[in-house]
Amino acid sequence: MKIAIIGAGNLGLSIAKGLIVNNAFTTLYLTKRKIEELQNYEEYSNVTVTKDNREAVQNSDILVFAVQPTQMERILEEIKDQLTEKHVLISTVTGFKIAAMEAIVGQDQFIVRSMPNTAIAVGKSMTCLCSNEKGEKRIAIAEAIFNRLGTSIIIPENKMQAATVICASGVAFWMRLIRATTQGAVQLGFDAKDAQQLAMQTCLGASSLLIESGKHPEEEIDKVTTPRGCTIEGLNEMEHNGLSSSLIKGIQASFKKINTITID
Ligand SMILES: NC(=O)C1=CN([C@@H]2O[C@H](COP(=O)(O)OP(=O)(O)OC[C@H]3O[C@@H](n4cnc5c(N)ncnc54)[C@H](O)[C@@H]3O)[C@@H](O)[C@H]2O)C=CC1
Ligand SMILES: O=C(O)[C@@H]1CCC=N1
């Protein structure tokens, strides 16, 4: 596959790392305004680093757009006359709807909207996908890419905003929970390194239990909470202080914010 990542910033480079580690491309173009920051990638013989989006589009089939929402319109305008039947456009751009892309490049393009997360760098992204009508014929290509770099599901476009919060912002939410657990472990006497390892691996174990068993979290919680034991004591104290409520309110705030970020 000849892939171009238009906008090799935080997410674009995470995708590039995942593609490189998994050897999942024939050629890879990385574009960015300040390409000096991408020097490390020039050592790969099949990776090209350039400021020239048009060169990247001309020499690639799969175009992954990973620019800020306010940059997307200009970039689509810049490359639209180069699009041919070989191209599949995969946008990761938050809040930028398929109709807005079609308004610029036309409906007769294979358009996929995706919402991956930065765990794509280590092949563990939860990615949500949807497409325009024409894109339905090639969404399988996007699925193949994202399944190689994690797990993907196809959802209706009207759920992409929610998917952004849960999957993309979600990485930051879980990181903060791991960080807070680490701080607690340090207070209980572990050094910082051990504390983080305990927090990370316990998080991975909890998640793996659910993924492999298909069970509800409360069923697993019941197995841990000894009556009158320390776990229920801690859990109830957390809930009295608003743990679940705080998370849910944060998710709502994040969701509402997306309505404004293409306008700022
Ligand atoms: N960071 C994340 O975890 C996620 C981000 N997203 C979305 O992906 C998009 C990118 O996000 P980030 O990587 O965080 O942003 P970023 O700001 O780190 O990356 C954007 C990149 O685009 C480059 N760029 C700007 N104008 C350009 C142009 N004309 N041609 C080529 N490159 C250009 C910038 O130099 C920058 O490196 C955003 O729309 C964001 O909402 C979606 C899911 C997760
Ligand atoms: O924070 C943001 O706006 C972007 C979208 C999801 C992750 N990062």
From TrEMBL:
State the compartments where it is located: Cytoplasm
Binding positions for NADP(+)? 6-11, 66-69
Q: Which GO terms describe its molecular function?
A: pyrroline-5-carboxylate reductase activity
Q: What the protein does?
A: Catalyzes the reduction of 1-pyrroline-5-carboxylate (PCA) to L-proline.
Question: Whose protein is this, by species?
Answer: Salegentibacter mishustinae
GO biological process terms, semicolon-separated: L-proline biosynthetic process
Q: Which InterPro entries match?
A: 6-PGluconate_DH-like_C_sf, NAD(P)-bd_dom_sf, P5C_Rdtase_cat_N, P5CR_dimer, Pyrroline-COOH_reductase
The gene name on file is proC
Q: Per the record's keyword annotation, is Cell inner membrane included, yes or no?
A: no
Protein name, UniProt field: Pyrroline-5-carboxylate reductase
Pathway(s) it belongs to: Amino-acid biosynthesis; L-proline biosynthesis; L-proline from L-glutamate 5-semialdehyde: step 1/1
Pfam families of this UniProt entry? F420_oxidored (PF03807), P5CR_dimer (PF14748)
Please classify the protein's predominant subcellular localization into one broad category. Answer: cytoplasm
EC number(s): the record gives 1.5.1.2
SUPFAM superfamilies with a match to the protein in the record: 6-phosphogluconate dehydrogenase C-terminal domain-like (SSF48179), NAD(P)-binding Rossmann-fold domains (SSF51735)
Q: What reaction gets catalysed by this protein?
A: L-proline + NADP(+) = (S)-1-pyrroline-5-carboxylate + NADPH + 2 H(+); L-proline + NAD(+) = (S)-1-pyrroline-5-carboxylate + NADH + 2 H(+)
